[in-house]
Amino acid sequence: MVKNVRRFSLYLAWLVALVATIGSLFVSEILNIKPCVFCWYQRVFMFPLVIILGIAAYKNDAKIIPYIISFPIIGALIAIAQTLLSYLNLSSLVCGLDCTQGNIKLFGFFELSIVSIVAFIVIFVLLLLAKKKSIKS
């Protein structure tokens, strides 16, 4: 199982970034929920991953990983800050929108910032697995 995940880790990382990007655009463009400042910064670090990881997966080239490994780290830190401010009821003071609204939850349970944290962490782990695969090759 781990060998298969490692084998397709670039493709899986691209897929996670693609789903996160499509989900983010769906929430803002279809559901008409304005993204806050934190959401925009998370998008800055997620959207380029779709293109970069797509090309890297297509070429099966893990040499790009040292250059993009900081993207999921920074994106996750921003999402963590958003989540902490949300739980402290301070997000409206910082970002101008109320990130704690009930309509900004996935399936009515998961806050989108937590989903974003998970997506960034999964991408980070998959990039590490892809890097280990390229070292062994």
Give the overall shape. elongated
Topology, number of strands: 2
Element-level helix/strand string = HHHHHHEEH
Q: List the strand order in the largest sheet.
A: 1-2
Span of the ends, CA to CA: 18 Å
Low-confidence stretches: none
Estimate what percentage of residues fall within beta strands. Answer: under 5%
Give the key terms:
two-stranded antiparallel sheet; 2 strands; mainly alpha; single chain; 137 residues
In short:
The protein is mostly helical.
Structural description of this entry:
This protein has 137 residues and is mostly helical. It has one domain (2-136). 75% of the residues lie in helices and 3% in strands. It contains seven helices and two strands; from the N terminus they run H-H-H-H-H-H-E-E-H. A two-stranded antiparallel ribbon has the order 1-2. Helix 2 (9-30) runs antiparallel to helix 3, helix 3 runs antiparallel to helix 5 (70-87) and helix 5 (70-87) packs antiparallel against helix 7. The model has no long low-confidence stretch (mean pLDDT 84).
What secondary-structure arrangement, pairings included, does this model have?
Elements: H1 2-7, H2 9-30, H3 37-59, H4 65-68, H5 70-87, H6 91-95, E1 105-106, E2 110-111, H7 112-136
Antiparallel strand pairs: 1-2
